[in-house]
Amino acid sequence: MNSLNPELRPDRLQDPDVYDHRVLGTRLDLFHQQEEGPGMVFWHPRGWALYRVIEDYIRRRMREAGFAEIRTPQLLSYSLWEQSGHADKFANEMYRLSSHSSGANRPFALKPMSCPGHVQVFNKGLRSVHDLPLRYCEFGACHRDEPSGALQGLMRTRSFTQDDAHIFCTEEQVEEEVQRFCELLRGIYSDFGFGAPLVFFSTRPAKRAGDDATWDRAEAALAFAARKAGLDFAIRNGEGAFYGPKLEFHLRDSHGRSWQCGTVQLDFVLPERLEASYVGSDSQRRPPVLIHHAVLGSLERFIGMLLEHHRGALPLWLAPEQVLLASIGPEQVGYVRKAAAVLGREGYRVAVDDRRERLSRKIAEAHDQGVPLVAVAGEREMERGSVSLRWRNGRQEEMPLAEVGRRFRAEAFR
């Protein structure tokens, strides 16, 4: 445990800079960034533990919602990006390189997003209308060459991971699929401690693929599905993706700021461009409708938001270390280590502080590091087979060790 941070004196607790995610990332020992990797993130053990908790939670929720997780390459031929239209859209933001071993100095690019890769998976095999809707998801590692002046900690990076999801469906299935995803999204945001999102409907941009008739169909279908899902949205003219209109979900944090996170995009363009098709009930081939989904957007950016929203005091289920077992004296060292092993076997993320240090300092340092629950063991607790629990908010109670794991399970795991 680090010593108490002088920046967190009571007279500074109202200073918004104290809750900047970059300050919190350093104080909580979560991540850092450096010149050798501009716009990239070096995750420390505690930060990676938080990252994996979020990733595992989203993975489970997507699986329960009927999505199959896939993995697509980060490096693809530049010709694929030209075919999809992303080369034109992201020309100045794509990292390009050549492969001499591929012959004729063939150009490649790191992916700025996962959509074309998901279409390639769909294209491997003959698809029938009976296979639809087909739902894929991926934690897609993406790269975009953002201007150095635009980089801002986790909020704007050059390397990031998107919780990409795509649904291949018929036009008749769009309404139900959008509704299902909106319900999923609301539940996830609530679990992270956010209220109802602000919703915006973004229409066709000036520079786009597809003709006006296609855009008319896409905008009408998405707006209808959004209303059926009970969404009240404002219009953002010209802010849609180059291949289709989109719904944007903005979350308000504890500071009153709004952040764009989730998106639902309706796409009649990319499947046709990338030659995706299924066999209909009339035995004719036709392109599927593609629905692009993301709940969090960029995981890095969402973690930055979470840290600022909760001011570093993450709830029990998200905290990198959920419980710290602290001994009062050297006689209890063996007991607290045994207690830590018991809670660890039950799935809790635990740490042990068995230093010869004052208990008050151990508790203060643990809470300063964002640990929500400290379990203290002295001579009395060791004799009773219990621990004294100290929460961040000052709440205290003594409890048998065997009961601790059961008591907080609903709060500790999502």
Automatic annotation (TrEMBL):
Its EC number is 6.1.1.3. Residues 20-315 form the Aminoacyl-transfer RNA synthetases class-II family profile domain. One of its GO terms (molecular function) is threonine-tRNA ligase activity. SUPFAM superfamilies: Class II aaRS ABD-related (SSF52954), Class II aaRS and biotin synthetases (SSF55681). Gene3D superfamilies: Anticodon-binding domain, Bira Bifunctional Protein, Domain 2. The keyword Aminoacyl-tRNA synthetase applies. It comes from the Bacteria. Keywords: Aminoacyl-tRNA synthetase, ATP-binding, Cytoplasm, Ligase, Metal-binding, Nucleotide-binding, Protein biosynthesis, Zinc. It catalyses: tRNA(Thr) + L-threonine + ATP = L-threonyl-tRNA(Thr) + AMP + diphosphate + H(+). NCBIfam families: thrS (TIGR00418). Belongs to the class-II aminoacyl-tRNA synthetase family. This is Threonine--tRNA ligase. It comes from Ferrovibrio xuzhouensis. The gene is thrS.
